[in-house]
Amino acid sequence: MPIHYDASRRQFHLQTPNSSYVLRVTSEGYLAHVYWGPRLRNPKLPDALRLVPRAFSPNPHPNRPELSLDTLPQEFPAYGNSDFRAPAFQVQNPDGSTVTDLRYATHRILPGKPGLPGLPATYVESPDEAETLEIDLADNLSGLNVTLSYSVFRDYDAIARSARFRNTNTQALRLLRALSLSVDFADDAFDMLHLSGAWARERHLMRRPLRSGLQSVESRRGTSSHQHNPFVALMRQDAHLHHGEVYAVNLVYSGNFVASVEVDQFSTARLQIGINPFDFTWHLAPGETFQTPEAVMTFSNRGLTGMTQTYHALYRNHLCRGVHRDRPRPILINSWEAMYFDFHVEELEQLAREAKDLGIELFVLDDGWFGKRNDDRTSLGDWVVNSEKIPCGLDGLAERMHALGLSFGLWVEPEMVSPDSDLYRAHPDWCLHVAGREKSEGRNQLVLDLSRDDVCEYIIDAMSQVFASARIDYVKWDMNRHLTEVGSAQWPAERQREVGHRYVLGLYRILETLTQRFPHILFESCSGGGGRFDPGMLYYMPQTWTSDDTDAVERLYIQFGTSLIYPVVTMGAHVSSVPNHQVGRSTPLKTRGDVAMSANFGYELDIRHLSEADKQEIRRQVGKYKEIRQLIQFGVYYPLQNPFDEQDAAWMFVAEDGHEAVVFWFGTRAEPNGRLRRLRLMGLKSELSYTVTQDGRATSEEPVGGDELMAIGLAIPFPNTDFQSTTWHLRAVNS
Ligand code: DGJ
Q1: Whose CA is nearest to atom 11 of ligand 1?
Q2: Would you say the CB of residue 524 lies under 6 angstroms from ligand 1?
């Protein structure tokens, strides 16, 4: 099994198929971090902990000048007794002091992987799929106990880590900082990679060399955010898309987070991730526990591609849940960019009829169907159908869609309230606010206080009524602003800094209840596009609207960045009209189709007014996607050309058995007198030969060897206009 304990060395060896992670209890009882990297057979690591006396690194043990916590690599560093680097946690004791000293107490090795109460987490379906190590650490003076948990997956280069704090004191403790993970690396010869951006340009790749001091990304917005994703990777400086070592961490959490790397005076690097300590304190009463979110660590010695494939497989099989997890996802049409708030049931039906005629499978009614919602200034919270726009009611509309042969989906934004709503007039204190202060509005709306049970109950009831009121097959759960005036009328002064985290816990409780109550509904999460594209949300909702930017060129960057971690089946991607509503760019319909077809496919434009030629092209796209859907949604994804490094983008999807593949190439700018370039493929079977069709036409009479396709590759075309795309479909012949 993947966890070995060597009692003679007091050493734990956590082994995945291609990596090892080693920790050791020192003779003083400190839990030291010894190694993370390529898999080792039987690690002895005699000189991994290099202890030498250092000036200005104090020594907690008399006559031991070589031992300072400032230079000891540690698993879960404390604050206050000789380590000056960033601690993994900090606690305020009953006497007001903030020093703690955790020592090893005991450990357990358990089959499988226990769940985390109230929090999303990766899971196993049978106990032999993972093994879990729990190590108890204790600070005898304060009564603080910490249990570190490591679940090691049998088939993936992934370890899920978290920490649980318990107060065994007779007085309360205050948690000031409670990260999920800390890893000390013996050197700093890395680049830091993170996924950052803004609304409509989420998850762009940012890579920078590590420098002395602290470098971090974080969210203080109450959600994981468009601006930074709860992810960071350390890449060896020679590591690239397909080569080299990558160490990555991703937090299964949807609120404020911090992901940081500190390079110290001796050029060691400390990697950390967890709940952002900014504006966070947790009151831990005697006997109470606090569970941190889970961080998923992956190691790859195949560059970013190895990391990507580990996260994809793990999240598809051990994070996403429910009946839709393994089912092909429907091709949808969404009413938003087609009609915005301006529609009537007849127009919806016309759109749906056209959609059905083109082969689309699911009709999604977006914002504007409830209350007096004819623009974004009103009615959030009043979840009653607008009978002027939809006189037949939601049930009538759903029946009409089903009668046409389409499934029916609905948009909701349950965490919000418009000041102009019956809900707000009845419960003005149900939103996040601080008494006596102005409430900042974002998109004319306020955020409901999900730290309160009564508010969560209201949302569960209101949504249950909507979801039960009609034949609803799909729900898009939106969230269109970030949190300000984070305070609650319900909690006492000393617990106000808990409100941000309690909001996320309240949201998780709501989502758990509703997804269990309505298991047949396919949920898609959204936050102004991809503002909450994180593993926490994927645990409840197996797909996410990737971005409000539907421009095909912008999407190359957004989808490439997002798919670095998140499975392609989780990424919503729609063809929209031109000129594009976000950037005004006009791209060919074929290119828009190829970009959107590279993920979870749909349309978001008024197809009623398209030319016959465009409708024919959409029919072709829909037919093609149905043919390759299984490959795209559940095949193995290979990024081939990184648009952040090169002018073009390319990726491919290969069937698990290697017998079929589809390849996409996108040329953003036409090149005069174009260079002769080729695209080397990956993941094929060398011993097989494949027929190759390029955009539906056979490229050669004879099948081509998988070895050739991977060694020499396909010829990239020379488009004479911008924004062109090409796809190839490969099928093995001698299988
Ligand atoms: C933001 C979403 O990202 C859009 O797709 C759309 O649903 C609007 N909200 C509706 O208000």
Answers
A1: 367
A2: no
